[in-house]
Amino acid sequence: MQELPRAVRLLIVARAVNRLGAFSLSFLTVLITTRFGASATVAGCVSAAFGLATIPSRLVGGRLADRIGRRRTIVVGLAGCAVAQLGLAAANGLVMVICCAVLLGLVFEIYQPPSQAMIADVVAPNEQVRAYGLLNVALAAAGMGAGLLAAFVGRWDLRWLFVIDALTCLLCALTVRLVLPADRRAAAVKTTDPEPVIAPWRDRVLLRMLAAGTLFAIIYLQIMITLPLALDRAGMSPSDAGLLFTTSALTIAAGQPLMRWRLLSTMSAPAAFVVGYGLLALGLAGYGFARGLPAYLAATVVWSVGDLLLVGRAYALVAGLAPPGGKGRYLAVYGTSWGIAGIAAPILGTQLLQHAGPVGLWTAMALACLLLAALQPAMVRAATRPGKAEFQPKGTDSKAAGTSVPERQ
């Protein structure tokens, strides 16, 4: 395997630094209820408003990435996050908190599409899955440190969490500005290809990928959001979820070197999706029937291995679907799946938990994984069929990316 380009490695390090401070949002509802005396309902509505605002945030980030460049957009997005976070820390009333929370949502996802597009620009298609995987591992490892930092700082004053988050955003923005390559001029990505450029929202293959990605995000967010409640319903401590999250991060980090094995590195995308979703289904079904912490830990390892096989593959497919100069917009449209899921997942998960219990919740999620395992191979074939650029970009785009791109094996 080739070594990843220096720009990608630096980007991964910068994002990991940013992730070290990305813990404050978990305490937003606590800040609203304890410091300003608002009800849990009001706090939930503010969180929902933040989640809704992240959807246009992704779209703006994708458009800016293709218009003004990757590096500039990342810096703008992170700087905006820092301003909003400092506003939350300094807020002296509920109205200002609500305004800053919505502002944070509007800028929160701006840096995501250019980060993903930058990887797609400079990494050969057959290495993109590994690059996205390494980014995910770095964020997971930094997330473990973030949890420890939050537990320490949060004992003083919750507002300091938002201050530290703002500082890590600014540090990441400064790192990106100083060490990443300058943005190319817009003319560098023009193409002489006579084929019309398809707008992201009119690309049927992309929309099918978006639907599948939304379902995956809904499943994944059940682990992040509903798992503590499910543990409580199962007679365990909700705080055990932290141990399960750490186990998952360790599994993904420890398993990353295994992706270099020939058996896994040469696995076709359809096979990887089927095996990955199958393991995810098995692990989540294990949650439904687990009795005791060891069983939950074993199930966590199983679904985390599945996640290891899945991470990055969908982003690589979407990047390949994009026309020259359109990677940012395509990745942004696909990324709205997390914003949509952020609104739907808490409602769906809590309703399933209330009416069907933990067994019903995790069984439903496992069945959804099996549905994705059945449907995803057809989507991969549609994305890689002749006429689509996935893994075989036209020469103009390859030159604009500043790298020669080998054809897919």
What's the arrangement of secondary structure elements?
Layout: H1 6-20, H2 28-35, H3 40-67, H4 70-90, H5 94-108, H6 112-122, H7 125-153, H8 158-179, H9 204-233, H10 240-255, H11 262-265, H12 269-289, H13 293-310, H14 313-321, H15 327-383, H16 395-401
Helix pairs in contact: 1-7, 1-8, 2-3, 3-4, 3-5, 3-6, 3-15, 4-5, 4-6, 4-8, 6-15, 7-10, 7-14, 9-15, 10-13, 12-13, 12-15, 14-15
Structure, explained:
This protein has 409 residues and is an all-alpha fold. It folds into 2 domains: 1-123 and 154-182, Up-down Bundle (Growth Hormone, Chain: A); 200-391, Growth Hormone, Chain: A (Up-down Bundle), CATH 1.20.1250.20. 76% of the residues lie in helices and 0% in strands. It contains 16 helices and no strands. Helix 1 (6-20) packs parallel to helix 7, helix 3 packs antiparallel against helix 4 (70-90) and helix 14 crosses helix 15. The chain is globular, with a radius of gyration of 21 Å. The two termini are 14 Å apart. Mean pLDDT is 79; it is low at 186-196 and 389-409.
What descriptors fit this protein?
single chain; 409 residues; mainly alpha; Growth Hormone, Chain: A; 2 domains; disordered C terminus; transmembrane helix
Taken from the alpha-carbon principal axes, the silhouette is globular
Number of domains: 2
Total strand count, please?
A: 0
Biggest pleated sheet? none
Instruction: Give the radius of gyration.
Output: 21 Å
| Beta strand % | under 5%
Membrane topology: Multi-pass membrane protein
Pfam families: MFS_1 (PF07690)
Region (Disordered): 386-409
Protein name: MFS transporter
